Amino acid sequence: MPTDKNIELTINDGHASAPPKAAKKILDVAYDLFYRRGIRAIGVDEIVKRAGVTKPSLYRSFPSKDELAASYLRQYDQEYWERFDEAVAAHPGDPRAQIKAFLTRIGKRTQMAEYRGCGMTNAAVEYPEHGHPARVVSEANKHELRRRLRAMAVAMGAQDADTLGDGLLLLIEGAYISGQLFGLGGPAQTVARNADLLIEASLKK
Amino acid sequence: MPTDKNIELTINDGHASAPPKAAKKILDVAYDLFYRRGIRAIGVDEIVKRAGVTKPSLYRSFPSKDELAASYLRQYDQEYWERFDEAVAAHPGDPRAQIKAFLTRIGKRTQMAEYRGCGMTNAAVEYPEHGHPARVVSEANKHELRRRLRAMAVAMGAQDADTLGDGLLLLIEGAYISGQLFGLGGPAQTVARNADLLIEASLKK
DNA sequence: AGGTATACGTACCGATCGGTAACATTGTCA
DNA sequence: TGACAATGTTACCGATCGGTACGTATACCT
Question: Which residues form the HTH tetR-type domain (chains A, B) (predicted)?
Answer without folding.
Answer: 20-80
